[in-house]
Amino acid sequence: MRQPLVAGNWKMHGSRAENASLVSGLLDLLQPGKRAEILLCPPFPYLMETGRLLKDSGVALGAQSVCAESQGAFTGEVSAAMLKDVGCRYVLVGHSERRQLFGERDALVARKFVAAQGQALVPVLCVGETLEEREGDQTTSVVSRQLEAVLAVTGVQALARAVIAYEPVWAIGTGRTASPEQAQEVHALLRGRLAAAGAADVRLLYGGSVKAANAASLFGMPDVDGGLVGGASLDAREF
Ligand code: PEP
User: Fold this and answer.
1) How many CB atoms are located within 10 Å of the residue 103 CB?
2) Cys bridge to 226: 4, 11, 71, 210, which one at CB 3.0-4.6 A?
């Protein structure tokens, strides 16, 4: 049984005051006994304080990125051990904004994945194609390449301890979401690959302009185990 997971990626948004009001709004709306796991990923400077605000709530804390190196002269970077130390359980790796804007390639994403698991953090590996790749019929080859790049380094046992988020780049922050059928098609492909390797139970999230109005139809698909939510996670009611 795969427990649904709904993760909020705050990206580079928020302030101490805004975060406090967002978290308190969320905690007020959370219904005890609901079976989905909730995860919040604030920017680095707010991790500790958000962790304090979430204390005893059952909502998990995660980071948006991690350094592939364990420690040393890497100015501006944050290690997996530091994330663990401030209470993170999860970390995003390979988000398309990291890949596209900060030049993170498959090999580096795989190293970050390994670094995260080295500190018992659960990596949320993001994969997804650009619009050009989709229109060029390359969706399958792109997401397969992104997945295999990690599998080749970590092996399937490690992947079984991770979460994968399918996030078509053309749907992120654009308001243009994949249809439930488009999401399911890619999730089924990923599930098939994982099942063939003996890791059928990995949770597969969909991300890309998820909001209250489309979440139920997306999350209702058989291989969609929840979502990675960007913009809509900044509004407690919408999230
Ligand atoms: C994301 O940042 O992972 C994301 C899916 O963003 P949005 O929901 O805003 O498209």
Assistant:
1) 8
2) 4
Strands 37-41 and 203-207 come out as: unpaired
Closest residue to atom 8 of ligand 1, CA basis: 230
DSSP state of 2: P
Residue nearest to atom 7 of ligand 1 (CA): 230
> How remote is the CA of residue 73 from the centroid of ligand 1, in Å?
32
| Residues with Cβ within 8 Å of residue 113, at least 6 apart in sequence | 93, 94, 123, 125, 150, 153, 154, 158, 162
Helices 47-54 and 16-29: crossing angle in degrees, nearest 10, is 30
- Helices 106-118 and 139-154 pack at an angle, to 10 degrees, of 40
pTM above 0.90, yes or no: yes
Q: At what angle do helices 139-154 and 180-196 cross, to 10 degrees?
A: 30
145 CA to middle of ligand 1, Å?
21
CB distance 91 to 62 below 8 Å = yes
Which atom of ligand 1 is found nearest the CA of 229?
A: 8
Q: Model confidence over 58-117: pLDDT tens digits?
A: 999 999 999 999 999 999 999 999 999 999 999 999 999 999 999 999 999 999 999 999
Q: Which listed residue (97, 104, 167, 187) is catalytic?
A: 167
Beta-carbon contacts of 211 under 8 Å, excluding residues fewer than 6 positions away, are: 229, 231, 232, 238
Can you tell me whether residue 143 is helix, strand or coil?
Answer: helix
Distance CA 70, CA 79 (A): 6
